[in-house]
Amino acid sequence: MSKLVIVVHYHELWLKGGNRRFFLSKLHMALKRALEGLPVERILRPGDRLLVEFGEGASAEEAVARIERVFGVAFYAVARVVPRGSDDDLAALGSAAWEEVRGEKFETFAVRSKRSDKSFPHRTLDMEVSIGKYLVDRLREAGRNARVKLNDPDLTCRIEVPPGPSLLVYARKIPGAGGLPANTAGRMTCLLSGGFDSAVSAHKMMKRGAHLNFVHFWGGGAAPGESSVHVARELVKRLVPWQFSAKLYLVPFEPVQREIVARAPEEYRILLYRRMMLRIAERIAHSNRALGLITGDSLAQVASQTLHNMAAVGAATRMPLYRPLAGDDKIEIMDAARKIGTHDISAEPFHDCCPIFMPRNPALHATVEELDKAESALDIEALIRQGIDNAAIERYHYAAGRVEKVESFKSATA
Asked: Which CATH architecture has domain 5-175?
């Protein structure tokens, strides 16, 4: 059985200049953690890509599924392994290249080679010319009119000469997750609802290297359909593999809402709910040394997300507030949710705490001064403390291809 080797290419990391080594080490670490439990023999870094070599019994399907969720990867490929040192290495490479491309549909192609091991006797140009000619001959024998095109071909067959006893051939590129490796940009805290938006917003910031913890505000019962807690848990489980670990803070919010309903003008209720959520999340974020808050707000999607209202709500926190979906419409958000696997979770029935005691005519263009005045009868600090003291924390960890809840406890300052 041929040895399994996966070639991993990155792109954006080349823009990091003197910091490139840091990002590459993080990508190397992320690949190692993502592939934990599989028989990985070594991960090499020859030039501008990484080679993951597996031992006996490795599943290509499982390895591909794991690498699919590693940020920082532009594309990757399962390579054909050609034993090195035969009487005619070029002929062996040509045969492997033909097997790699014969089933593909293309009209133009090119052969590109990289010789990381300079002791290999054939130069890169010699390999490209020889194998390219071989493929042209085989294609003509098969009645196909494909031709060589060096600039922007339909298909590129790549030859790798890494250190060691094997040569590599591949042409089928699998798109990677892109972005920057996990845990390279600092910590952030995401206000996670059970809906589509906040999970997509979280994924976008994780893709830029941020490590997220999540705060979920819930009301109602605990059974599916009665509370949003079960949906929040499943969303976190779906997102954790992209960054390997996370904490989920579950804050019972209905008592806070009842205070707002009893003491504040009706038309501002939703906006005051959101301000209190931000304040509680900010306090939790500080306890985790986070540098910013994330929400799933999309401009003008609902009444509370008009430009005026978002500005008035956001003024409740001094911590930087990020809204990655501000310019996205609902169709774009739903498409993204399907792509990352959170759509069907968010589509489950649940009891959302925000519409409780919904005002008949919610304010559309509130100002900071109006919301400050509307909150004047509330004990803001007491409500923040109440939310934090009653919160539960769950820790999740991704290892060996599985997500597990490893700890659950009270106290939102842990």
From this structure: 2-Layer Sandwich (3.30)
Helix axes 380-389, 269-287, angle to 10 degrees: 60
What is the predicted pLDDT for the residue at 355?
A: 58
What pairing do the DSSP bridges indicate for beta strands 75-83 and 5-9?
A: antiparallel
Q: How, if at all, do strands 166-170 and 75-83 pair?
A: antiparallel
pLDDT tens, residue by residue, 21-76: 999 999 999 999 999 999 999 999 887 889 999 999 999 999 999 999 999 999 99
Return the amino acid letter for 100.
E
pLDDT in tens, 75-116: 999 999 999 876 689 999 999 999 999 999 999 999 999 998
DSSP for 331-348, please give it. HHHHHHHHHHT-HHHHTS
Report d(CA 40, CA 9) in Å as an integer. 18
**Sheet order of strands, 245-252 included:** 321-322, 293-294, 186-191, 210-218, 245-252, 392-399, 402-410
User: How many Cβ atoms from other residues are within 10 Å of residue 32's Cβ?
Assistant: 12
Locate the DSSP E strands across 193-303.
210-218, 245-252, 293-294
What is the rounded CA–CA span in Å between residue 263 and residue 375?
8
Alpha helical stretches, state H, 2-148: 20-34, 60-67, 89-101, 124-141
Residue count (the chain):
414
Global pTM reads 0.91
Task: Give dist(CA 146, CA 200) in Å, integer.
Answer: 42
Q: Indicate the CATH number for domain 186-410.
A: 3.40.50.620
Query: Is residue 43 classed as helix, strand or coil in its secondary structure?
Result: strand
Condensed to tens digits (0 to 9), the pLDDT of residues 132-184 reads: 999 999 999 999 999 999 999 999 999 999 888 889 999 999 999 999 999 99
pLDDT score at 362: 86
Domain boundaries, the chain: 5-175, 186-410
Do 5-175 and 186-410 agree at the fold level? no
Separation between Cα atoms, residue 81 and residue 367, nearest integer Å: 65
